[in-house]
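Hi V.,

Quick status before I head out on leave. The structure for the redesign project is tokenized and pasted below; the design run finished overnight.
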């Protein structure tokens, strides 16, 4: 399994970005997909997760601003990020949580300027 994240960039506060993460392999549809982020000097934290049946959960800091979705045909998970804040600046990683192991993408940088 390989995960390829894209869509990061530089945006002003209040702006929007959409991250995408495309997966290879045949186990995408049955696994939980998630987005995590890591800011400089901080631990990696969970941002949003979506189960194979579409149940979603979000970190309190992004509720109402971010939306995670998935397309099992395209084997892609998305993170729509609206009303971005400078504190959302981080490297964002996509994750696939299978029964046997976790898979991670390479990360995409999101920078929000004030």
């Amino acid at each position: 399994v390989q995960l390829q994240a894209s869509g990061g960039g530089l945006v002003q506060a209040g702006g929007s970005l959409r991250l995408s993460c495309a997966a290879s392999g045949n186990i995408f549809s049955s696994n939980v997909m998630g987005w995590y982020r890591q800011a400089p000097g901080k631990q990696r934290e969970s941002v949003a997760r979506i189960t194979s049946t579409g149940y979603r959960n979000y970190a309190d800091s992004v509720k109402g601003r971010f939306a995670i979705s998935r397309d099992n045909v395209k084997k892609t998970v998305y993170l729509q990020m609206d009303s971005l804040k400078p504190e959302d600046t981080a490297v964002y990683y996509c994750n696939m949580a299978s029964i046997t192991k976790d898979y991670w993408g390479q990360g995409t940088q999101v920078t929000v300027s004030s």
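Above is the designed sequence. The first strand starts at residue 3 and ends at 6.

G. will cover questions while I'm gone.

Best,
W.
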